[in-house]
Design a protein that fits this description.
With about 500 residues, the chain is an alpha+beta fold. The protein has a domain of about 240 residues: Nucleotidyltransferase, domain 5 (2-Layer Sandwich), CATH 3.30.420.40. About 30% of the residues lie in helices and about 25% in strands. It has 14 helices and 23 strands. The strands form seven sheets. A seven-stranded mixed beta sheet has the order 17-18-16-15-21-22-23. It has a six-stranded mixed beta sheet with strand order 3-2-1-5-14-13, with helices on both faces. The termini are far apart.
Length: about 500
């Protein structure tokens, strides 16, 4: 029997998964990843820990499933996207920490790029924010005095996909795919190439940037495993792979991923839509030389809010306890805005801090758990509402995935507040399935018209509150947003 192997290198964990050709997950392995927080709003990771975790996860799959490389059709890689690092071309060793996509430590640099915000938005579809790789690269070059070496080609830049490809191929392949490149803020999403105007704005040398390939291209071979050689047959950013995992490959499909952050994508097909409501225009896929686009809303804190009430203030022991506690609360007055790292779509205010409003002496841990879950859902409402306002295409069904999507209380509240059906597939590793789909597209096993037939079993959440209650809840949340924006 032949299998697809998928590697999902996320923010808080790395996971390898084995899928059959019909899209059923056979096995998974998992390793946690550590984020460090050296200062307020700064988030770092160790690049070598990320690489070692990838090796460990893949090895475990081979050992436990007793398979060889000849059983593997190919390896697909998906990854946290904007996280950035610099490494030495000769040794292949990191020269810097990996600055995680969530980190706002480059905020102080952004004022100098404000005069170029319109041309940057036009070329990249992105707004000025510490979120993207451009300011992270600039910051790391300055912090470690690496500009000269970078211009000489001795220092290379990598997002996590590039880093893993480089290490797995022993430096033979220095490449990324179009979906990841589109998040660097150095890549022109109209032409599908790095843009000299952007490189000049950020003073970044093109020689240090990876080659950009189709998401369904071959990215070389890895010989790192005793079980034999494996071809890397596809690469895509995690949010774009989630679209594929849901079978969304055409105009109007919407998905919300509840991971560490919260990410909503609306597929717009070959049509590139410009948002007037704080959404980002991004590349959904590059296949056979053709670019497909999406509108994206990004919220920096999603499931991480649940992690905070678990690890930060200790009111739950495990994340799933949040659902049990929330169902015991009868308080509808508390609003939690979990903007720990600023507000994303549609506000794009990196200076905001989080807040819990409406607490009294009677407030309990049950109420805080409920407000936490509802705070996640409200953020998704803002993004989906922005998509509807832009209305360049009609929104279709809303598919959900990610760890927090397994919380039934959150999903029901999400349906209520969106006034829409929310569909959750039985397959929980949707992003990994998307990476497997890339392999299938590469090898001609799938095409973009038949991936919607994979893993079709879903649970549907339908709205069960009236319009008056819904509208009042949304108004109260928006009053809380205004309060958070004032208090900085």
């Amino acid at each position: 029997m032949k299998y697809f192997l998928a590697l999902d290198s996320g923010t808080t964990s790395t996971r390898a998964s084995l899928f059959s050709v019909d899209g059923k997950r056979i096995a998974s392995s998992f390793r946690p990843l550590i984020c460090t927080y050296p200062s307020s709003g700064h988030v770092h990771q160790d690049p070598m820990e990320i690489y070692v975790a990838a090796l460990d996860c893949i090895n475990e799959i081979f050992v436990k499933q007793n398979i060889k490389s000849e059983d593997i059709i190919g390896l697909g890689i998906t990854n946290q996207r904007e996280t950035s690092l610099l490494f030495d071309k000769e040794s292949g060793m990191p020269l810097t920490e990996a600055i995680v996509w969530q980190s706002n430590e480059t905020s102080f640099l952004l004022d100098q790029y404000e005069p170029y915000k319109d041309v940057i938005k036009e070329l990249t579809g992105l707004t000025i924010s510490p979120y993207f790789s451009s300011s992270k690269i600039r910051y790391l070059l300055d912090k470690y005095n690496l500009q000269k070496k970078a211009e000489e080609g001795k220092v290379l830049f990598a997002t996590i996909d590039t880093w893993l490809i480089y290490k797995l191929t022993d430096g033979k392949v220095f490449a990324t795919d179009a979906t990841n490149a589109s998040r660097t803020q150095l890549y022109n999403i109209n032409t599908g190439e790095y843009d000299e105007r952007l490189l000049k704005i950020f003073n970044i040398s093109k020689i240090m940037l990876p080659e950009v390939r189709d998401s369904t291209s071959s990215f070389g071979y890895t010989d790192k495993f005793t079980f034999g050689r494996i071809e890397i047959c596809g690469v895509g950013g995690d949010q774009q792979c989630a679209l594929l995992g849901h079978g969304i490959s055409s105009t109007g499909g919407v998905k919300i991923t509840y991971g560490t952050g919260l990410f909503c994508l609306l597929h717009t097909g070959e049509k590139m839509c410009t948002s007037l409501n704080g959404l980002l225009t991004t590349i959904a896929l590059k296949d056979k030389g053709k670019l497909y686009y999406a509108l994206e809303g990004s919220v920096f804190i999603g499931g991480a809010a649940v992690q905070w009430i678990r690890d930060g203030i200790g009111i739950i022991r495990k994340s799933s306890d949040s659902e049990t506690l929330a169902k015991k609360s009868s308080d509808d007055d508390i609003i939690f805005v979990p903007s720990f790292n600023g507000l994303g779509t549609p506000y794009w205010d990196s200076d905001c801090k989080g807040a819990i409003l409406g607490i009294t002496r009677a407030t309990t841990k049950y109420d805080i758990a409920k407000a936490t879950l509802e705070g996640i859902a409200y953020q998704a409402y803002d993004v989906i509402n922005s998509m509807k306002q832009d209305a360049c295409v009609n929104c279709g069904n809303i598919y959900v995935d990610g760890g927090a999507a397994n919380n039934d209380y959150l999903m029901q509240f999400q349906s209520n507040i969106l006034n829409a059906q929310v569909l959750r597939k039985d397959e929980t590793e949707i992003t990994s399935l998307g990476a497997a789909v890339l392999v299938g597209l590469n090898k001609g096993i799938y095409n973009l018209n038949n991936i919607s037939t994979l893993n079709t079993k879903v649970k549907i959440f339908s709205p069960n509150i009236n319009d008056e209650i819904r509208d009042e809840k949304i108004k109260k949340y928006h009053r809380a947003i205004e309060a958070v924006k004032i208090f900085k």
